Every structure is written in structure tokens, then in C-alpha cells.
Amino acid sequence: MRHPFFCLAACAVLLGGCATYRPAPVDPAATRAQWQARRLDDPTLAARLRPWLPAGDHGQWPPASYGRAELLLAALVLNPDLAEARAHLAEASAAVDTAGARANPTLGLALERYTQAQADSAPWLWGLSTDFLLDGGLRRRLRVQRADQDVRGARLDYAEKVWSVRRAVRDALAQTLLARRQQDLAARTVAAAGALEQAARQRVALGEDAPQVALQAAQTLAQARSDQAAAAQRAANAQAQLARAIGVPAAALEGLPLRWDGFDRPAAPPPARLDTLADHALLARADLERALVDYAGRETELHQQVHAQYPQLSLGPGYTYDHGIRKLTFNASLSLPVFNQNQGPVAEARARREAAAAHVRAVQADIGSAIDGARARLAAALPALDAARAGKQAAERGRKQAERAFKLGAIDRTAMLDARLAELAADQSRLAALDASWGAEGALEDALRTPLDPAEAALWPAAGDRP
Known about the structure:
The protein is an alpha+beta fold. The chain has one domain: Outer membrane efflux proteins (OEP) (Up-down Bundle), CATH 1.20.1600. Helix content is 67%, strand content 8%. It has twelve helices and four strands, in the order αααααββααααββααα. A hairpin with a 2-residue loop joins β3 and β4. The two termini are 56 Å apart.
């Protein structure tokens, strides 16, 4: 009876190397406090960002002002969506160990005892049986290959998430800067419309104009106040979106100096550079690579199902103590493909491979269409911006002429205020055209999956691959 206890002791020693469970509950109150304490001038954030800062800044954080590159760097560390994507990447990496692990054998124990002693025989029969699944060679290599493909896919998913965060930061920054300008224009429009309404009421009181003139001026003032409220709401929404994209509370952006170099002068990149970027996107954009990885996974799956047609062998050496007689046993089992040869799973895997191939072609077509559409959109938006600038300049000249004429007594105050409102309206049209131009450039960047700003373009390879 010593042998079973030795086996049990050996099992206990093996189990001593197992991992232990430690609970890690998530406390919403603690995470809420951590979220509210986030700031861009946090020394901890500075320490984490220092290796990624441009050499020209000598590793200084926080910067004097925050542009697209600085905000993207902060988002890489702080954005909670990226933290979740990194966790999924770690999850996929852990699955590689699972795929490469060899199957553990099973150990069985059988006991039998006579109810009453028999002459010249031991009362006990006991036996140990094992079962070793021969799960090596091609089967195991295919599992590891499939797990490696899943890790590659998770890395590409992370790269796409980084891009979506970068896009959110860029768009929110553009909307924040535009909304601030719209707020300033709206305040000036309200002031001019108020002065116009007051002048109109005075002229009506003096009998110089009909009452409809004062009513129209009042409507203009009401519309200006409504536009001012809408501009304030847009500014608040844009700042909240920017804070969420970075990964900080909205209060952390209060008074934060933001910048966008060349914001008033968007321009299309040289056609040769766009052609090069377009060719690269059509061959290696992250979502296209993801589709190719999915296709490789379906290819591996088909290989697995084809190989599963073949029998799988298990070996089971054992030992039996049979009432005083010691026996060595050896068992072998083999799965027999009698009723099916795995035709169904093979057909399903082949169909999934064909669907994955069709998806690759569809993604590539979408990329080409998106690039062509974005280039055309930008090509149309920039001349429209030039026209809006020309309109603003013409309105500015008209306003200056009206002010000179008013000083000379050639026109009344109402006409001069109308010229001011016309200039402000033209400036609003210019901002709308500027918004459309940056939106078109953003769509082109999204289609190419590459920043067109040189500072961001220099940072992007490291940012996109950073795990």
C-alpha cells in the first residue's frame, strides 16, 4: 500500500507550483477619485512622457502650450480606451502560452477489497492507470500559429484604437478652437446688433423709419443672441470631447493654452506625397492588415480541421496490485473516423476562408474609395475657403468705407452698423469654410491613417506601435 501514497505525495509536490488566486475588486469610488485627480501637469505623467518628448524640448513637461502632438502623447498614457486595448493585447499574448502547453496526463486509481479473507490471498486489489494524449507535432504547432495570429490581430486592433484616439483628439481640438472664435464673433455680433436695434428704435421714434425697421432689427438681435448661446454650447461640448479623448476630466482643461500652428492656412500636401501615402494605405493600412491576419487565421483553421480527420492516439501505461500479484499494464486508444471524416467542419472552415478573402478585397476597395473621396473633398474645400476669405476681405473694406462715410456724415448710423454686421457675417462664413477645410483634411488623414502635420508624422510611427 505504499505506492499509492507515494503517488499522492508526488501530486501534492506538483500542485505546489500552481498559481494562487488573489482577489482584485474594482472600487468605483476609488476609480472616480483617480479620474477627477487627473491633470496634464501631473509630475507622474511628466515622468512617463519624458522618453517620448521631442529632443528639441529637452524632455520638459508640461509644455508652454499644447498642440496636437503634445495632446496625443498625453492621450497615449491617459486615455482609458487605450488602457482597455492594452489589456486585450495582454490577454491575447497570454493565450499563446495556453496554445503551446502540452496536454497533462490523467491518473486513475482503482481499489478493491474482499469482504472476507480468503486463504492464501491478499484482501486488496488496487491499480494505477494513466492516459497520455499524444498531442504534439502538427496539431500543437497549428494551435501556436493560430494564437500568434490572434496576437498580431490584437496589436493591429490596438493600432486602430490609437488612431481613433488621435482622430478624436484632433477633431475635438479643431472644434474647440473654432468654437472659441465663433464665441468671440457671436459676442461682437450681439453688440453690433444691439446697437443697430437701439438706433432703429430711435429712428422710428423720430418718425424717420417705419416700425417694421425696428422689428427687423429686434429680430436680428434675437438671432444674434441665439447664435451666441449656440456657440457657447458648441465650445463646452468641444472641450468636453477633447477632455474625454485625452483621458482627463473637463476641469483639467480650464485655462489650458491650446495651439494649432497654421490653423488659418490649411493646405493640401504635394500630390506626389499623397500618391505615396495612398499606395502605402492600399497595401498596409492597419484595418487591411487586420483583414489579412483574419484570413491567415481562417487558413490555419482550415488546416486544423483537415488534420482533425486523422485519428488521435492516447497511451495509458499502468500498474496493478492484484491480490498479491503485481502487474504492469499498457493501454492504447485510437479515435476511429467511422461515421464521419470531419467533412462538416472542413466545409465550414473552407467557407470562412473564402469569406475572409472577400473581406480583404472589400476593405481594400473601401480604402481606395475613401482616399479618392477625401482628396476630392479637400480639393473642393480649399477654393471655397479662399472664396470665403475674399468675401470677408470685401466685407471688411465695405465696413471701413461705411465708417469713413459715417464720420463724414454721408450715411447714418444704421447703415454703418449694417456694414459691421455684414463683415461679422462674412467672418462667420469664413470660419464655416475653415471648419469644412479642416474636416476635409481630417477625412483624408483618416483614409490614409497617417497625420499630414510634419510634427505628428514624425511622432506617429512610435505612437502607433507603442504597446
